[in-house]
Amino acid sequence: MEQQYVLSIIEKAGNKGISKSMTSLQVNPDVMPRSQVLKCVDSLEKLGLIKNFKSVNGPITPLYILANLNPPEDIAGGIWFDESKEYDSTFVDTLKDVVLNFVTSKTFPNQKGKDSISKLVSNPIHPIAKTASLPTPQHVLKFILANKVTNASLSVKNVMEIARALELDGLIEAIKPVGGVTVEERYESDSDGEPVPKRRRAKDSDDELDPEERARRDRKNREKLKAKLKEKKREEKRREKEKKARAKEKEREKRRKEKEKEKRRKEKDRKRKERDQKKKGKSKEPRS
C-alpha cells in the first residue's frame, strides 16, 4: 500500500517528473517517514514501474516519471545535450555538415554528360519541375541511418531542426514540391543499422486515447503493480523463511559445538582424576 501511494504521487507529476525530496514533502511524516518514502521510490524503480531522468536546468537531481512516459525535450534536453546536460555543439555541427552535403548532392544534377545548359551555368540546379528529386526530411534521415553517422535515436523532427538551422544560416532553402507535400513513412534502423519503415505504434499518449482506452490502460497498470507487489511480498516471505531456517541451523550448530566442547571437557576432567588417583595409589605403596 505504501508503494502504491508513492506511485500515485509520481503519476500525478506526469511526464515532467518529480524529485525524491518533493515526493517526500507531499507525504505526511505521521503517515510515512521520509526514509520509507525514499525506499519506496527505489523499490518502484527496481520493479520497473518508474524511471528517472535529469533536467537540463538541474543535471544533478534526478526526476522520476512512470516507466511508460517520456520526458519533454524542453526539460530533458533531447539528443542535442550530452550526458552532463551540456549542449553538444560538436554533435550538432557534425549532423549539420552531413545534412548539408547530402542536400547539396541532391540539389545539383549529375553533370557527367554536360549539355548546352550545363556549359552555360557552372552549377546548375534542378528546375522546379524536378523537385521530386530533391530530398525530404525522411530521405535525409534514411541516409543518416544507412550510413551509421550516429548511434543516437534520431527522428524526422530532429532532422527538420537541423535543416531549419541550416536554413537560418542561409545554406539551404525549403521549397514545396509541385503537387503538394506528401507524408512518407518514417524510418528507423534495424539491428544491422539498415533503415526500415517504422511500425505503427499503439497510441499511448493521454491526448490520443479515448476515455475507455485510458481506463483500460490504467486498470492494466494497477493490476500490473498489484501483481508485482504480491510477487515482491512472496519473495520477501521466502527470504525471511530462509533467513529463519539459516538462523535455526546456526543455533543448532552452535549447541552441537557446545555439547562437544562440554563432552571434551568432561573427558579431560575424568582422565585428570584417573591420573591423580593413580599417583595417590603409588604414593601409598610401602617402600622396600
| Category by helix and strand content | mainly alpha
Strand content range: 5-15%
Give me the side-by-side strand order of the main sheet.
1-2
Order of helices and strands: HHHEEHHHHHEEH
Taking pLDDT < 50 over at least 5 consecutive residues as the criterion, the unreliable ranges are 116-120, 183-207
Q: Give the termini separation.
A: 95 Å
Q: What radius of gyration results from the CA coordinates? A: 37 Å
Q: Which whole number gives the mean pLDDT?
A: 77
Biggest pleated-sheet summary: 2 strands, antiparallel
Task: Count the beta strands.
Answer: 4
Structure, explained:
This protein is mainly alpha-helical and 288 residues long. Among the domains are: 2-74, Arc Repressor Mutant, subunit A (Orthogonal Bundle); 88-197, no CATH class. The chain is 54% helix and 6% strand. The protein has helices spanning 2-12, 20-25, 34-46, 73-76, 89-107, 116-120, 137-146, 156-168, 211-284; strands at residues 50-54, 62-66, 187-189, 195-197. Strands 1-2 form a two-stranded antiparallel sheet. It has a two-stranded antiparallel ribbon with strand order 3-4. The termini are far apart. The model is unreliable at 116-120 and 183-207 (pLDDT under 50). Residues 253-282 have a biased composition (Basic residues). Keywords: DNA-directed RNA polymerase, Nucleus, Transcription. This is DNA-directed RNA polymerase III subunit RPC6. It holds the Pfam family RNA_pol_Rpc34.
Task: Give the helices and strands, then pairings.
Elements (H helix, E strand, L loop, with lengths): L1 H11 L7 H6 L8 H13 L3 E5 L7 E5 L6 H4 L12 H19 L8 H5 L16 H10 L9 H13 L18 E3 L5 E3 L13 H74 L4
Antiparallel strand pairs: 1-2, 3-4
Helix pairs in contact: 1-3, 5-8, 7-8
